[in-house]
Amino acid sequence: MALYGLLGFAAGLPFYMFSTVLALRLQAHGVALAVIGFFAWVQLLPTLKFVWAPLLDRYAVPGFSRFYGKRRGWLMLAQLGIFASMLGMALTAGDGSLAVTALFAVLLAFWTTTLEIAADAWRIELFPSQDEQGPIVAANLWGYRSAMVAAGSGALLLADWSGWTLAYLAIALAAFLPFPVLAAMRGADDRDVERVTSLATGILASVIILALTTVVTMAVGWVILRAAEGAGIDAGSNVTPWVLGLCMLPFLAMAAALPRIRRAPPTSALRRSVALGPFVNFFWRFGFGALVLMAFVSLYRMGDVLALNLSKPMIKDLGYSLTQIGRADSLVALLSSIVGVGLAGWLVTRWSMTWALAVGALLAGIGNFAFVWLAQQPVDEVLLYVATGLDQFGNGFAGTVFVVYLSLLVNPRFAGAQYAFLTGFAFMLPRLLAGAGGTIVGAIGYDNFFLLSGALSVVTIVFLPALARIHSRPDDDA
């Protein structure tokens, strides 16, 4: 549990550095609100993690995995990737080129997501039941939420004091803490004599992998930027209709494929495929109920994701300083989220998932409504603490319940791929819309934006009676 708390801490730090903290950094350099909204699309990488998650189930990292095993090998590679990407963001903290800023932000998002894939797969393998999941998820999210102090508060205080470069360097060092812990652990089969060789070859292989990943990311990014330029997309573009259209495509594709998937025998190429088999298994088990599940999971965390990137710019526009925001995101946010996470981790071992999910949705909605209330008040740091506390308590509670629920939907045979698919899809719609958040705020204002995001969280309660009647059919090819 201590290790999972540390892994959660290491994953939470970089996430805030390429989302909330980056939004404030771009705002400080005069970047338009609509463009800051576009940067939220960097957070789409975690939603697409199912694309490369099967690779983590199937392949091992050269060097590291020989001694530490497959899961820890990927964790160590991801740690090196996070450190290198954050170093790049620190050295380009002036944001003189938004394309370069985007490059390192994407790399940071990719390696952070890879860390989460490996950690989640290992967690589900070790703790498969609801009673076991509650405490270990709470430990992981305690670490993740504690990262808010270092990233959401510490980074802002450092940036206010000595600039963004120092802030990113400090967080890079803090995010690297699990690496020496993992390196010092016993080997997968106690072959301590091979530790040094494994570390040396693993680091060498990691340098090569990191370099190749950077080159590929630069090439893909260049193509995307040229395509956007050719399509005439700029800070004044209204991309919301296109985003909503993209959000419908996964549902249409799944609905079209379900009849064939349900009829597929265990020997079919579709179910035996290395790339598609884990995902086909999910739809085969739940049938058309999978569509209801996917609609629910894509909405449940909507409010939190929409508020993430624009809540801090809104608070800054209200007249609060970076230091005041940093203080609110320190002890207040930490204690509120720890209580929310701990309470949820305890209650899921005693309540039905239906009740736990309902309470989580209500509390998440209240957290978003708190920003609307804050906007109507005079600038007062105590009121900022109240709004921040409500937001973080609700998000901590809802996030914990949601992680446990998704973990219970997963087939342990495909732990890494299926959990990556579920969590990726859960945040695809919210993060697509978050990228258009700046445009939406420009059209309806901050108040209506946060009222809408809070309502989207609460409305998911109507799904719960249907979810309670959806059950998985047992595997016929175990």
Automatic annotation (TrEMBL):
It is a multi-pass membrane protein. SUPFAM superfamilies: MFS general substrate transporter. The chain crosses the membrane at residues 33-52, 73-92, 98-118, 165-184, 196-222, 242-261, 282-300, 330-348, 355-376, 382-408, 420-443, 449-468. It is found in: Membrane. It comes from the Bacteria. Signal peptide: none annotated. The keyword Ribosomal protein does not apply. PANTHER family: MAJOR FACILITATOR SUPERFAMILY DOMAIN-CONTAINING PROTEIN 3, SOLUTE CARRIER FAMILY 33 ACETYL-COA TRANSPORTER -RELATED. This is AmpG family muropeptide MFS transporter. It comes from Sphingomonas olei.
